[in-house]
């Protein structure tokens, strides 16, 4: 145990200047939604609200495709992984650059053509009409709703987390947090929710639900275009700032090569005297305790911890312990050179220090600059070779199996648009993902000890970089980049779910003669209800956003890619075959996650599916799905000749070709 001073964080987390910039961006989003709503008054509601009348040009199509793919996982979950595991994330994400070639090149022209032949508006529409199977359409709808609901909850968490970081130094936000804390203290399901997070979740949810409900597809597309521009500008600004403040690429890499993984656990904090007022031990506070060799051990607090008036002790304070001697010396030196203005002169002792080592990489230097990367609970590391191969398929091939991408492919206006967009999106992803790897490797040096709160690393890094150059107003724009990524994904998923319910369940199966007014009201209501439900689900969100993104992305690909490829390109494909492939892919993928629950004690803290032959579940799911479609199709009667003629006869294809 030791006596010392509580060192509070050197870095404030936000400013009114950043908030004003961010609010200006949000107002622009609502302005685009209002403009988009005017189009709904002059065109067919269903086609315009859910598909933008199939009129997207190169920039609108390319940026809405890219912005939807670059979700909250790209700007919160992906940076979290980079910070946690180091340079190996470049290999993990490398194949994402060929997603446009696979997704747009493999399916783009053909799915657009088939959708025009059948007049389809949604992905279940395409599958239902291709085989004249209502059951297939309903099955596709239910699977979309199942996976998208999980993803929406994770995205709402990301949006709220970003806002929490931005507002954490705004006085009005602190006043509102205190008021909400008093109001929710007696509400059972809200008492355990951080009041600040609750405010930000509500603000984010209301904003995205209103503009998506009000504006429809064109509001989503236009905001995606703006958000796509904001994302790439934000990354391009952060890249040179991060490299410069980390001392250059060579210095940053040398520092990372010395690092050993931290220890994560809890400590008991004992104050030397009781405090008259309630005391909050702030997240990111540094605490010291002596080591065996008399060198101070350095801990960083992971989340706010309250001590009531008169209290002197708090148990199980969540902390991250820095283990690299050079890093400990550097941090202590920085704190001594830059005294904290609100430092609390309270002596304390640390006891009951219980911290755990990483399963892979503990005590080893260099693990952050070479594969497979450190890992808290997997003794094989983060990215062994077999898993790296799996993720090549996960991003490059399964990216083509996302219904949200397929909807975009149904909306472009010409083959020329498609060809140019493939090139545009490939460049766009290159300008986003590789710089992010560099930025958040630098974050390990600039923001040490955040290994338990890595989902906050993007907004924290944005605020740090701009504060260090005296341009806090710029933080609003940089934080708008991940916020834009989340919003562009949430609005797309909201429309997908509402279109699935209104179009594919109600209009196609319950009331085919429903008036446009009825469909319009139901579409608005469904979008609002689904968004509100996801917002409620995010009250107790999943711990790791990227794990949910990977699960839903892989699951959708396992269900939809095989059936869609056979649907579009194999005349012999029939309803029993493609339905079997969809169910087989779903079952194979889900079963490996269910097996993980029973095999790994920490599954719900660190989602770890069972990996057959060390491959990610998406690879197994895709393999099973493709085989099931092929085998069951050959075992069952061929489809009616009129269906084959309608979708594969050259005359029909020529008459409905996408115009050059």
TrEMBL record:
Subcellular location: Membrane
Residues in coiled coil: none
Transmembrane segments: 17-35, 56-75, 87-107, 134-154, 196-217, 229-247, 382-401, 422-447, 471-497, 518-536, 548-570, 577-598, 618-636
Signal sequence annotation: none
Stored InterPro entries: Na/Glc_symporter_sf (IPR038377), Na/solute_symporter (IPR001734), Sodium:Solute_Symporter (IPR050277)
Keywords attached to this entry: Membrane, Transmembrane, Transmembrane helix, Transport
One of the Pfam families matching this protein, by short name: SSF
Organismal lineage: Bacteria, Pseudomonadati, Planctomycetota, Planctomycetia, Planctomycetales
Similarity annotation: Belongs to the sodium:solute symporter (SSF) (TC 2.A.21) family.
Cellular component annotations (GO), alphabetically ordered: plasma membrane
PROSITE patterns in alphabetical order: NA_SOLUT_SYMP_3 (PS50283)
The protein's name in its UniProt record: Sodium/pantothenate symporter
Gene Ontology MF terms: pantothenate transmembrane transporter activity
Bilayer disposition of the protein: Multi-pass membrane protein
